[in-house]
Amino acid sequence: MNATTSCPEAPPRQRVPFYRQLYVHVLAAILIGVLLGHFAPTLAVQMKPLGDAFIKLVKMVIGPIIFCTVVAGIAGMGDMKKVGRVGGKALLYFEVVSTLSLMIGLLAGHLLRPGAGFNLDPSKIDASALSGYATQAHEQSTVEFLMHIIPNTVVDAFVTGNVLQVLLVSVLFGAALAALGERGKPLVEFIGGIANTFFGIVHIIMKTAAIGAFGAIAYTIGTYGVGSVLPLIKLIGAFYLTLFVFVVVVLGVIGRVMGFNIFRFMSYIREEILIVLGTSSSEAALPGMLEKLERLGCSKPVVGLVVPAGYSFNLDGTNIYLTMAVLFIAQAFNIQLTFTQEMTLVVVAMLTSKGASGVAGAAFIMLTSTLLVFPVIPVSGMVLILGIHRFMGTGLAVVNTIGNGVATLVVSAWERELDRDKLDAAMKKRTVV
C-alpha cells in the first residue's frame, strides 16, 4: 500500500484498563526483579531459567517467522529488481547511520573521558576470566564473513538460528516462488497462513513476557549486584547519556525528516522496549517488531527484508558501545590514540560488528574481536568491563531495537510504501483498518 492510499477509520475500541496492558506487567516484573535481586540475591539467581526459557521460546519462532514474512512479501511483490532496490537502500542507510554511531561513540569518549584517572598497569590485570571470550573471537576476513552467511544445508540455517542465513534462504525461496507466477500462488497463500499461525504462537508466548523479564533482571541484579556498578558508574552514565543523545538527536532528526516523532514511535513499541530492557536481548522483540511495523503502515516486503538484516548490519547501540569501550580502556591505561588510529578503529569496529551475529553475548565478543584486530590496546583491559557488560548490554539492545524500527520506516518511505494514514493514526493512538 503506498503513501496515497487512504484507509477508512474504524470505530474507536474500548480502552483496555492499564493494569491489563502488557507493558505495565513487564514494567512491574522488572521492578520486582530488581528488588528481589537486591534484597535476596541467592534466591534471585535461581530465577535465571525463567528468563532463559522466555528467550528460547521467542528464538524458537524467529526463523519460521522471518522465512514466512520474507517469502510471502517477495513472492507477492513479484519484481526482483524491486527486492534489490529495497536491499540496496537498506544497506546504504545501515552503513551511513552505523558510521555515524561509531563516530558519536568516539566523540562522547573524548568529551566525557570515562576512563580518565584509573592509571592502570596492563601487567597487573588478571585476564583469565576472558579466556572463553577470546576463543570465540578472532579476526574474520570479508570472505569468511560472506561464506558464513551461506548455511551448510537449508535446514541448518533454521537449526542454528543464524538470522542472516535464514534471510538468505528466505530471499532465494521467495525469488524462486515469484518466478513461478500463477502456479506459485497457492503456495504463497499457504505460507501466509503459516505466518499468521506463528504470529499467533508469538501472542501466546508474549503472555509470559513479564515472567521472563522478571527472571532475567532478578538474575542480573542478584549475580552482579547494584554495588558492582559503583566503581564504573562514570562509564555507565556516560554510555547511557550518549545512547539518549543518539536516539533523541540522530534518530529524532531522521524521524522528523520522514514525518514522525521519535518519542511517539517509542511509545508505540513500548512493550518491545520493555521486553528488551528486561531480557537484555533485542531478539526477544523481533517478532513483535515485525508485526507492529506492518500495522504502522510499512509494507510486508520492506519489513521482512530490513528488520532481519538490521539485526546484523544496523547495530547503532552496539557501535556506540564498541568505540566508547575501546576509548575507556585506552584512557584507563593512559594510552593516547592518534587520529589515524581512531579512524582505523572505526573501520575495524565496522567490520567486526558484522562478524558476531547470532553469537551469544555478541557485543562483548565484538569488543574482543576489535581489540584482537586492533592490538594497540591490551585485550586484558576488558576485565574492567566484564562485570558491568550486562548493564551496558541492556541499553545497547534497546537502541538497536529502536534503530531497526526507524530504519524500516525510512526505507518504506523511500520506496513510497509507507501508509501515512496508518502511521498518523498509530502515532495519535487511533485504530485504522
UniProtKB/TrEMBL annotation:
**InterPro entries recorded for this chain?**
Na-dicarboxylate_symporter, Na-dicarboxylate_symporter_CS, Na:dicarbo_symporter_sf
Q: What is its main location?
A: membrane
The answer, when asked if Transmembrane helix is one of the entry's keywords, is: yes
Location(s) in or outside the cell = Cell membrane
Spell out the molecular function terms from Gene Ontology: fumarate transmembrane transporter activity; malate:proton symporter activity; succinate transmembrane transporter activity
What is its biological role? Responsible for the transport of dicarboxylates such as succinate, fumarate, and malate from the periplasm across the membrane.
Q: What is this protein called?
A: C4-dicarboxylate transporter DctA
Q: Which organism is it from?
A: Caballeronia choica
